[in-house]
Amino acid sequence: MRDRKVAIESQQPVWERLAGEGKTPMYVAVDGSAAGLLAVADTVKPDSKAAIEALKKLGIEVVMLTGDNERTAKAIARQVGVDRVLAEVLPDDKAHEVRKLQLEGKAVGMVGDGVNDAPALAQADVGFAIGTGTDVAIEASDVTLIKGSLMGIVTAVEISRATMRNVRQNLFGAFGYNTVGIPVAMGVLYPFLGILLSPLIAAAAMAFSSVTVVTNANRLRFFQPRRSP
Predict the structure, then answer these.
(1) Each residue of 8-37: b (16+ CB within 10 Å) or e?
(2) Which of 64, 74, 77, 191 is at 20 to 30 A from 203, Cα to Cα?
């Protein structure tokens, strides 16, 4: 509007009010004169706030990355509990902002659904595409959320952590059996206690080790994701 020499100062109070409500105001001019404002807004999904709170409890920092003006972005961020906002980011700069976060030493998970989000999804350590979004975003991502709910991200993080815990437990169990069994089989205890490891016991221990690992891994079948209220 300023480039076209349209005076918009009279609309500024209304613009600020609409932006403070989390809406994106757009000026309208007719024949070179300001005629009013239009405001549009993306409605916040009912479970978004709960999902962000859950992510914070998991120790994850949540950052809002948007092309909206800063005032509108901060209004939405307050509604859902996001503390850090990167606003007025051009579509081509989203991947750059993700890279900047990575240079801070952070592992970045990016959530997006549009064509403009695809480069940032590819740049992120883990890209989450909303299943109802564009094919380009889904193709560029690592994880696709079937539904549009952010609770899917909470579920993905929780099951990933549960899987890695399970892997570490299994490795500890397997190495534990071998760390104890191999020295005994080599006769380390024989000079002191006269103990040798019978091949029968060794075979049973090996089988029990496998059963322990498989049983522990099968516990993941009973994993229950966090439910949104």
Answers:
(1) eeebeeebeebbeebbbbeeeeeeeebeeb
(2) 191
Sequence letter at residue 91: P
CB atoms within 10 A of CB 75: 19
Residues 6+ apart with CB under 8 A from 13: none
SS3 sequence, the chain?
CCCCCCCCHHHHHHHHHHHHCCCEEEEEEECCEEEEEEEECCCCCCCHHHHHHHHHHCCCCCEEECCCCHHHHHHHHHHHCCCEEECCCCHHHHHHHHHHHHHCCCCCEEEECCHHHHHHHHHCCEEEEECCCCHHHHHHCCEEECCCCCHHHHHHHHHHHHHHHHHHHHHHHHHHHHHHHHHHHCCCCHHHHCCCCCHHHHHHHHHHHHHHHHHHHHHHHHCCCCCCC
Q: Which tokens sit at 94? A: 């989203």
Closest CA to 22 of 80, 96, 92: 80
What is residue 229's predicted lDDT score, i.e. its pLDDT? 45
Bridge partners, residue 26, by sequence: 38
Q: Give the pLDDT confidence score for residue 62 in this predicted structure.
A: 95
C-alpha dihedral over 214, 215, 216, 221, to 10 degrees? Answer: 100
pTM: 0.71
Q: What per-residue confidence (pLDDT) applies to 57?
A: 92
Q: How far apart, in whole angstroms, are the C-alpha atoms of residue 92 and residue 86?
A: 14
